[in-house]
Amino acid sequence: MYSSSDYSSLKYPDIAEELKIHLQSVKILHQQDLQKGYGSVYLPFALERKYPRAKYDWIWQFVFPSGSLSKDPRSGEVRRHHLHESSLQKALKQAVRQAGIQKKVGCHTFRHSFATHLLQNGYDIRTVQELLGHKDVKTTMIYTHVLNRGGKAVRSPLD
What we know:
Layout: H1 15-35, H2 45-50, E1 65-71, E2 78-82, H3 85-99, H4 107-120, H5 125-132, H6 137-141, H7 144-147
Antiparallel strand pairs: 1-2
């Protein structure tokens, strides 16, 4: 297992910049859809009734849209839906295979990793419970066994 200090030498990409680039390409796709007579997204009935053109506005478009158009079963309108979760699952499975990782890894793995790292970084158990949406703190306590720090984990404010 790696400690957080093992990651200090890794170079992480600038996520904000990558997201801006991604959104620019999604906006171009949306503009192309509009030119072809598409480009709408589903909005709840009351919202669509109040703002009938809002479904075409850039602000309402999916951040991760599907690569293809499809017919909305409710309205019969052809539109681009969000990227299906199975696409991410398949991409992760392929990345794990290509990286040669011999462990079972799924999208839920990131949830466990997130919780564990929060606890490793000193966040209190109640905060982690709230972030994960656990009703009972006992469910969140499962993550504490991974830390395995014992009494040496207690740090004085003077340290």
